[in-house]
Amino acid sequence: MTDEELGQYIAKYGDRLALRAFCRQRAVTNETSGGVETVRSALLMKKVRDRLEEQRRTPARSPPDTEGRGIGNKYAAKVTRRVEMGWLHFSTQSGAYRQIRTRNGGGIRNLTVQKSVTVGELLETGKSLFFPNGRSAQGPVEDFEFDIRDYSHNVLPSEVTVGQLYDQTKLRMMRIYTASKPKTVITLSDASDVESTDEEIKHSTLNDGLSSSLPASPDHNGNELFVTLRRVNIVDDMLQVFMEPRVLQRDLKIEFANEKAVDSNGVSREAYSAFWECFLEQCEGEDERVPRLRPDYSQRKWEALGRVWLKGYKDHKILPIRLSLAFVLACCQGLDSVDEELLIVSFSRFLSEHERASLEKALQGSFDETVEEDLLDVFSRMGSHCLPPKDNLRAAIVTIAHKALLQEPKFIIDCFHSVLHNAVPDLKTKDSLIELYESKRPMNKKVAQIIKPSCESLTPQEQTTLNHLLRYVRSIDQRKLETFLRFCTGSTVLCKNTIELTFNRLSGLSRRPVAHTCGAVLELPCTYSSYPEFRQEFDNVLCGDCFTMDIV
């Protein structure tokens, strides 16, 4: 092509020169390489043609269906689905299920399963994942009850399949949980499974086989509920038992973990006493106390607490008299049943002894600088930062008493009321409740009067020991008196008409008092040489771990 002909396509002369130079260089390269580029392209094209021809001659084969799709159709319905599985464990402290983290053996596991796999089969998979070799950080697999729960923590039926769950929820990724719950807190068994025993039931501070006339007699009525409680976790374990309302209709039989005892009412009384002692330590107040709302207590837990109160009173006449009188009356008969007089009485016992004295002086019109300082502290603690006028003092005290005893625990009162209302016909009035509290309150003279020897004729040594015991009971303070009563009967309040006294002749290191709480029987050695010796040994018993059941 001449320059004139090329100029018809490329107007600029410099561009035409550059094009000619490029063409000459390309031609030289092809000549020196011997047509390598052409040969390489031809070879590649031949390989492509050969492979296509081979595919035409050979029937088509699909790779293994790893994704669960239909043959020849990547958009066909899957036969497998992915599932995420976590671990929920029931917390006895909060009364709810909590997710277990990866560092504690939980976490989220990713599974690929057939759509036809059922929830029951997934449960076995979850046990093997979170309980490898049958154990986990929470304990062995035998100690728990299991089920499968969905993303809302609702229990799933065991016969439902994975495909059905995906169809129902329309989720892109299904998450389920293996839920575990301890089954050591409450143990159900029929009365026929309980072996009757003629061994005696004893309550002592040392392991020793002493004779007794108190046989265990289980009631084979088929309505018994056997419960194992841990003394170190008595509050949570007891509330867990009473979460179910039906426990009020059962014959409750209690035992303590790792303690030797058969319950013929003595162990049950000890369990209720230990429960209320631990629970009231968490409440507000002094001589009388009021529970306060807690973030870890739900409505079901407060209702369970009301059932503990009701069951303990109906079965064993145990009453936590340190629970505020005004609070209990409001729980039984409503807020309107609490009058001003009862409010002031309960509020004074709610305060410390020093503040109580100042409050009584102020109500009598006796004011001084100390009384005003104490009253200001009380009003400040209740939310008021100034003292009311003297002519309006009683009304102001009633107001803060109503706030502290009734308004702040109003939700708790409503939960109790749903359980206690009309459940105890004897407690319909304020006077009946006050009378009941006074009858249950242990006093030195009343406790001494219910101590009765098992036989009328006593030897001189036995009479001396009886005199030592009566002298001791009449002289101890209120706190130690309640401990003595609980040691003998299992209860810190008066729930038995008599404490039977028997004697033995133990001496040396084996000498100590032995209490049989089921029958309220106290065995005393009659080998004490003096009252100081008797008092020292009995003080040592009551100050130690005297409530552990360690003899059967």
The class by helix and strand makeup works out as alpha/beta
Helix content range? 40-55%
Number of continuous helical runs: 19
Instruction: Give the N-to-C terminal Cα separation.
Output: 123 Å
Gyration radius over CA: 41 Å
Largest sheet: 5 strands, mixed
Give unreliable regions as ranges.
184-220
Integer average pLDDT: 84
Strand count: 15
- What form results from the Cα inertia axes? elongated
Strand content: 5-15%
Provide structural commentary.
By secondary structure, this protein is α/β, with parallel strands linked by helices. Helices cover 43% and strands 13% of the residues. It contains 19 helices and 15 strands. It has helices at residues 3-7, 13-33, 36-57, 119-130, 162-169, 234-241, 266-280, 299-316, 325-333, 340-350, 353-363, 369-381, 393-407, 410-420, 430-440, 444-449, 460-475, 478-489, 531-543, and strands spanning 80-91, 96-99, 109-114, 135-136, 139-140, 144-149, 174-182, 224-229, 251-256, 284-285, 289-290, 451-453, 499-504, 514-516, 521-525. Strands 1, 2, 3, 6 and 7 form a 5-stranded mixed beta sheet that branches. The chain has a 4-stranded mixed beta sheet with strand order 12-13-15-14. The chain has a two-stranded antiparallel sheet with strand order 4-5. Strand 4 (135-136) and strand 5 form a beta hairpin. Helix 6 (234-241) crosses helix 8 (299-316) and helix 11 packs across helix 12 (369-381). It is elongated, with a radius of gyration of 41 Å.
